[in-house]
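step=encode ok
step=design start
structure_in=
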């Protein structure tokens, strides 16, 4: 098998993966109600400027937020102002 063909296929797969990840991030960043417009703009620029690493960072952030939200939901609520 020709080595240049292997590199072409590998490059194509990485390119398509980067485009798919970037599009996924654009939609999920836009639909996220928990961040303000400035943060959305920063995340969009990061996801589009760094085609592989930006989306991976966004997906990691989303997973961590979901994990923390689930932990907060399962923990009992503490009272901020105890009765006197």
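sequence_out=
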């Amino acid at each position: 098998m020709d080595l240049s063909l292997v590199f072409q296929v590998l490059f194509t797969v990485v390119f398509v993966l980067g485009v798919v990840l970037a599009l996924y991030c654009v939609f999920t960043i836009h639909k996220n109600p928990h961040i303000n417009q400035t943060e959305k703009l920063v995340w969009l620029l990061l996801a589009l400027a760094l085609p592989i690493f930006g989306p991976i960072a966004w997906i990691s952030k989303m997973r961590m937020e979901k994990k923390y939200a689930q932990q907060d939901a399962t923990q009992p609520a503490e009272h901020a102002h105890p009765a006197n």
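step=design ok
step=annotate ok -> The radius of gyration is 20 Å.
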